[in-house]
Design brief:
single chain, 130 residues, alpha/beta, 2,3-Dihydroxybiphenyl 1,2-Dioxygenase, domain 1
Length: 130
């Protein structure tokens, strides 16, 4: 087996926060919609999102959404990081859009800037200097 790439990342949202999450990932973060499907048998949406036509996020809504067991150190996906050229100006963009962010930090191993921020569900996301 030879893995060629990461195909997609699946994120879950509550039914109540689906529309806010859709706006966040498309209008704030700039993902484009590939497809949106309502799955009647599950009473949930599946939103396929692309970034620069390459990476894909699947955003699922579920009426029986479960909260993370602990924050942020629960088992499983800790956070999703996006590469940007200017972390400080990107953080300011998020702040201007009323997105909750943490303070800028410096990676002790690489010397590069990064910052954590949160989607409408509280999912930790990161901007990391390219």
């Amino acid at each position: 087996m030879k893995i060629e790439s990461i195909h997609h990342i699946a994120l879950l949202t509550s039914t109540e926060l689906y529309e806010a999450s859709k706006v966040f990932y498309t209008e704030v973060l700039g993902f484009t919609i590939i497809a949106e499907t309502f799955r009647k048998e599950r009473n949930s949406y599946k939103l396929d999102l692309a970034l620069n036509g390459v990476y894909q996020i699947e955003l699922f809504s579920f009426p029986d959404f479960k909260e993370r067991a602990s924050f942020p150190e629960s088992k499983g996906l800790r956070h999703l990081a996006f590469g940007v050229k200017d972390v400080a100006s990107s953080r300011q963009w998020l702040l201007d859009k009323a997105v909750r962010t943490e303070e800028l930090r410096i990676d002790a191993l690489t010397g590069k800037e990064f910052v954590f921020f949160y989607d409408p569900n509280g999912q930790p996301l990161e901007l990391y200097q390219l």
